[in-house]
Amino acid sequence: MQQVQITAERLKALKKENSQIALIERICRCRISIDQDGLITISGEDGFGEFVAKNVLFAYGRGFEMKHAELLEKDDYYFLSVDLGQIFGSEKRIKQMKARIIGENGRTKTYIEGVSGAKLSVYGDTVSFIGSQLQIEEAKTAVDTLLDGGAHKTAYLKMEAAHRKNKARIHNAAF
User: Fold this and answer.
1) Which part of the chain has CATH 3.30.1370.10?
2) Cβ atoms within 10 Å of 13's Cβ, excluding its own
3) For the chain, which end, N or C, has fewer CB atoms within 10 Å of the first or last residue's CB respectively?
């Protein structure tokens, strides 16, 4: 049995997605129940299926659309979350960092997702990633640069360099 707690806002949205819950239950071969306090319990015969369902629901709780959270059902997709509250002390600084990651009209977030292939969610005090190990590594390179105070151009250049390096590594491994 696995349990996960998500924010009330995301829990309310999850309850509206009964078909999505049923899909997770079917794919992960488990049963999902939500108690009156909002605690989500996942039970089943397969411990790995429970673990995957927990990760999908946790990612959904961190602000991802269900279609992106469900990517975690695949073997080569991972989830990473960075708690900005542990890095920056003040709410004002956290808000500034979130704004830097999202960018004007979402352009920075969109660019990072486009180059790296990872999905990003900036929700609450966290920035979270879903993707392959290499995709997350590339996206995190850009985000870390922004969190360290680097310019957007520098963050993009570092991410693009990591992307080229990974692409060359994959290409060379194929031969």
Assistant:
1) 2-71, 78-174
2) 16
3) C
Q: What is the pLDDT along the chain (175 residues), one digit of tens a residue?
A: 999 998 888 988 888 877 888 888 988 899 999 888 889 999 988 889 999 999 999 999 999 999 999 999 998 999 999 999 999 989 999 999 999 999 999 999 999 999 999 999 999 999 999 999 999 999 999 999 999 999 999 999 999 999 999 888 776 765 5
Provide the whole-model pTM: 0.88
Cβ-in-10-Å burial (0-12, 13-18, 19+) of 119 comes to buried
CATH, domain range 78-174:
3.30.1370.10
Domain at 2-71, CATH from 3.40.50.150, 3.30.1370.10, 1.10.10.10, 3.40.1080.10: 3.30.1370.10
Give yes or no for a contact between 6 and 61, defined as CB atoms under 8 angstroms apart: yes
Radius of gyration of the chain (CA): 18
- Give the DSSP H/E element, type plus range, for residue 121: strand 119-123
